[in-house]
Amino acid sequence: MTLDSISRAAVDRIIRVDHAGEYGANRIYAGQMAVLGRTSVGPVIQKMWDQEKDHLKKFNELMVAFRVRPTILMPFWNVVGFALGAGTALLGKEGAMACTVAVEESIAHHYNNQIRMLMEKEPEKYTELLQVIRKFRDEELEHHDIGLEHDAQLAPAYTVLKSLIQAGCSAAIYLSERF
């Protein structure tokens, strides 16, 4: 995949926002582990976090390979991600899992939109990027399902909590694509 064969602006946006999202996910899981790491759900959270670390590593590599600058909001996502993870974990395992369901559902939807956009252009030019996004989308959906299996829907005010977190995800996506 070379920059001359693809739209620079589209690739910059995709890599920047996906890098920010994977960074935010890492911070969310770090916050959850700070609160719940030594509980029975700790190994479940750790496994999902390990996959997110791989996602972030790949987007770090893509940032360098394509010379894409990170979002200027990284310091903000650092704090907000950790606070979201720790804050929902303080509600118990169900709160942490509700956060996971909300975030991963939003991210899977976001990745699906990116896949559609790239497929509408010239998909053969975007083969590597499409493979990465599809793989990560599938793993995010696994995390979503794990959250449901671990009682996310039993979190206090689940529907409200999920809606608020997803609104935050939408705002984070919008801002990270642009700044």
Automatic annotation (TrEMBL):
InterPro entries: Ferritin-like_SF, Ubq_synth_Coq7. It is a peripheral membrane protein. It is found in: Mitochondrion inner membrane. GO terms for cellular component: extrinsic component of mitochondrial inner membrane; nucleus. It is an enzyme of class 1 (oxidoreductase). Its EC number is 1.14.99.60. It catalyses: a 5-methoxy-2-methyl-3-(all-trans-polyprenyl)benzene-1,4-diol + AH2 + O2 = a 3-demethylubiquinol + A + H2O. Component of a multi-subunit COQ enzyme complex, composed of at least COQ3, COQ4, COQ5, COQ6, COQ7 and COQ9. Interacts with ADCK4 and COQ6. Interacts with COQ9. Belongs to the COQ7 family. This is 5-demethoxyubiquinone hydroxylase, mitochondrial. It comes from Enhydra lutris kenyoni. The gene is LOC111156102.
